[in-house]
């Protein structure tokens, strides 16, 4: 048994997640390999995944196969101890399948509140408390205390129960999947919470030497020395375009926390530009043309088939917005021409203009049916 | 390591299965406890489950929790070695979750054809080959042989490959989930199959000392000393009403195979009787009134609300049939009365007479909507 503890903190893998219609699995596999490389080169003693391993409680078979493979690689091939909890996106029952067998190879997977308190895991110089995503009713049940009606009240009880199990000669790390924000005000009798009734006040967590959080996807979500989100290893939405993704390397012996960045084969970029610039062949370097793009057009005029045209050059466009709105339809000369078109064509063109993407085959079929029904009623 | 081998052979648990609308899980749990008791009292060295652990590839959480609990009880609490394969109802990926860890406690779970051939399991004096449900394309892939177009051809190749791995000082047991029937005719050049292209000829399996099969739900499905179906531990359809359910206790050292019956808390009975007899309070003993009943009425006359009336006494009726058909509607005096009823009531009564069960709320709603549409069109 190692007598130091240096671990990698990651969370929110969301295996099975799609970006619009795009399958992220290949990128997730690539980033997984980077995490594996970081774990190796940093000589960590363990790897922490703070919840939301899956994107959905009912993951598809491909996702289950991928997660099974990743976990097996880390724990059985690389012989790395794993500390894993279920997040709100995971099914505790499904994710927990097989967990009683995993401990034998130091893969600790907790999916129930009771385990978090009753079964701390000691590795090296550190005692880990693995707290899966939980709801106040579970705390009321565990403590047989109906007064634990809010997240802050319940979390206070949970932390107190964990503290009672603290081994005095060890460092204490909490792994949790929750929304931590704000602070308790303890100067009045009634402890009011700044973060709201659903948030865990950060000061509650200061009894730990480190808190490895999952739930929020940005590692900048919280500014605290010891209480940190790792964020997701990939960008999952346009709002994360500016984020740097990565993992924390935590050394409880040295008391250090260091950031190691990860890069996805397909970055997610937010781009503001004119249609004319975007359609220049070298506007983005060749390897960036495949990135996931959230585009904001600076143009105001109507551009027919804009999504179709731009996707020809940038296959992974997530959305197209307008920076300055769009010219009103009555300014668009195209309308006078369209008077002579049939109503279905008009509707399809209108949709394309508004949504900047043409109707799908299915939508065209709906339009056709609806039109037929309207005609039948006349 | 034991140097004898005595094992319990069961299959086709189908956890998650419903009988009509009835949830079988409580009965399945009760029968599981009987299997556990038999394993204990018979001092078996291992327990074999020959596929179809689940009823569906995508089992609900309750079923996953139940199976996880049963397997954990057998393998971790009772410390019984387990030999398990996936059946056609199981998802190999989902059932196989965690399997690389299970071997450490002698829980061998094979979900791929390659494992069946490449990873025989030796326990005591016996070598087990665990062959999950497979399709000929998997055999073509494994052997890189496009000529394996049918089940008999592919199975011949599989058995030959297994034979090449036979340890000469061991007994050899095949665990498989397949349809075995008929025999190969090897007296002509072209081996024609009696059982058809989808069946495994039983004589192919004679190289084994015992073949523990799953797939067919009756243990009488095959008459062979060494090649046996255990059948399901519960009756799953009216056609199984006459079956005795149970498990085989196989002793490869002594060369014996013995039957141990199981009884579900709710039996499934097929009953032929008159309505008058059935409605006598003591027609069935009190504890049998809760059984699953497939009823055949000997009456011919129309009996209004017959399902509703009989379910008052027998809550778990699966179906009501007629032994001698039913009196034609024009013989039923009730019709003259019904002339004065409104059409929806007439339709509902007609359905009730024909199906011997009243319309559900949803069906009543459909009827109402359809009638409204018909009136609107007039």
From TrEMBL, chains A, B:
A GO molecular function held by the record: 3'-5' exonuclease activity
Pfam families: Metallophos, SbcD_C
Domain Calcineurin-like phosphoesterase as annotated: residue spans: 5-218
Highest taxon, organism lineage: Bacteria
Signal peptide: none
GO BP, sorted A to Z: DNA recombination; DNA replication
Residue span(s) of domain Nuclease SbcCD subunit D C-terminal: 265-354
Keywords: DNA recombination, DNA replication, Endonuclease, Exonuclease, Hydrolase, Nuclease
NCBIfam families: sbcd
Role of this protein: SbcCD cleaves DNA hairpin structures. These structures can inhibit DNA replication and are intermediates in certain DNA recombination reactions. The complex acts as a 3'->5' double strand exonuclease that can open hairpins. It also has a 5' single-strand endonuclease activity.
Family indicated by similarity: Belongs to the SbcD family.
Known partners and oligomeric status: Heterodimer of SbcC and SbcD.
Protein name per UniProt: Nuclease SbcCD subunit D
Organism: Schleiferilactobacillus shenzhenensis LY-73
Species classification: Bacteria, Bacillati, Bacillota, Bacilli, Lactobacillales
């Amino acid at each position: 048994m190692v007598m130091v503890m240096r671990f990698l903190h990651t969370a929110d893998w969301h295996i099975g997640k799609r970006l619009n219609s795009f399958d992220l699995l290949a990128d997730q596999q690539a980033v997984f390999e980077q995490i594996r490389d970081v774990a190796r080169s940093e000589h960590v003693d363990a790897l922490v995944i703070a919840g939301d391993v899956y994107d959905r409680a009912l993951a598809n078979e491909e996702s289950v196969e991928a997660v099974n493979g990743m976990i097996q690689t880390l724990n059985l091939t690389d012989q790395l101890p794993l500390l894993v909890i279920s997040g709100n996106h995971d099914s505790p029952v499904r994710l927990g399948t097989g967990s009683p067998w995993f401990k034998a190879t130091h893969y600790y997977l907790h999916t129930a509140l009771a385990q978090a308190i009753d079964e701390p895991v000691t590795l090296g110089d550190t005692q880990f408390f693995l707290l899966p995503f939980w709801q106040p009713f579970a705390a009321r049940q565990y403590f047989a205390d109906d007064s634990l009606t809010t997240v802050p009240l319940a979390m206070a009880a949970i932390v107190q129960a964990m503290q009672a199990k603290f081994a005095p000669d060890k460092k204490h790390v909490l792994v949790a999947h929750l929304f931590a924000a704000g602070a308790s005000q303890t100067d009045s009798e009634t402890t009011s919470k700044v973060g709201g009734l659903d948030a865990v006040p950060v000061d509650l967590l200061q009894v730990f030497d480190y808190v490895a959080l999952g739930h929020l996807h940005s590692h900048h979500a919280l500014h605290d020395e010891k209480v940190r989100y790792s964020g997701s290893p990939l960008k999952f939405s346009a709002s994360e375009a500016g984020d740097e993704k990565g993992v924390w390397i935590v050394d409880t012996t040295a008391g250090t926390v260091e950031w190691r960045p990860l890069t996805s084969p397909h970055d997610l970029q937010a781009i503001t530009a004119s249609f004319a610039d975007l359609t220049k062949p070298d506007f983005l370097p060749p390897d960036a043309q495949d990135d996931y793009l959230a585009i904001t057009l600076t143009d105001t005029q109507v551009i027919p088939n804009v999504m179709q045209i731009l996707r020809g050059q940038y296959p992974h466009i997530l959305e197209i917005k307008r920076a300055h709105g769009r010219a009103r339809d009555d300014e668009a000369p195209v309308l006078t021409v369209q008077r002579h078109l049939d109503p279905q064509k008009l509707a399809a063109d209108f949709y394309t203009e508004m949504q900047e993407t043409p109707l799908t085959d299915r939508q065209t079929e709906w339009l056709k049916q609806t039109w037929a029904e309207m005609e039948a009623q006349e």
